[in-house]
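Continuing the batch. This is chain 6 of the set; chains 1 through 5 are on the previous pages. Same settings as before, nothing changed between runs. Recording input and output for traceability.
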Amino acid sequence: MTTSASPDELASLIAAVKLASTGEALLDATEALSAKADPGSLDCLMEILTYNNPGAAVAAVDGLISIGEPAVAPLLANLDQHNYGARAWAIRVLAGIGDVRGLAVLEQALAKDMVPSVRRAAAHGLGQLQLQGLGQEQQVEVIRRCLASLERGLSDGEWIVRYAVAVGLEKLTPALHLLSEDASRLIESLSGLVNEEQEPVMVVRMRADLALRRLKAKWPDRNLTK
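Output for chain 6:
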């Protein structure tokens, strides 16, 4: 549970981050700052993503996700093409927030990022973008872009990414209730992950099968045995 910080308290929390002299102190200070989920901490939390301290970066990611929508524009404006670590953490934040403004970044990350864990985060994010406030045509465009990106992720060479694609596809299904043709594509994609000839890793097949069984419960009138 987050609580708002007074200006003095926020300044003190940010100062603790700046003055941290050890990795442990930085982690503790970042966790305390992140717990407030205060938009006033955005610059500090984004700066922490550039530090060589994975523990503090994870805490900063959690804080930025808790801040939510106000963090999206600053993150997109400050994606550092020359600091891969900071960019990778920022992608995780965008995936966790689920704002549609991050769609292009998540598409690129799933398709091209060199690190499997970043591609995995992007796959999760593409399954849970928030569509509120968009017109119907925009919603359809976003949904179809997410589906197409996840379909391309089916051929990823890392099983953890394909597992995340199965999760992303399942999460995408509520948005497909009015798009019958696209729902069929999604079902076919999951069915391919269940097929042992197409997917060699058992845990991925099991996760895709779980998704299909859940969809069958939601859509009892559909043929999910392709």
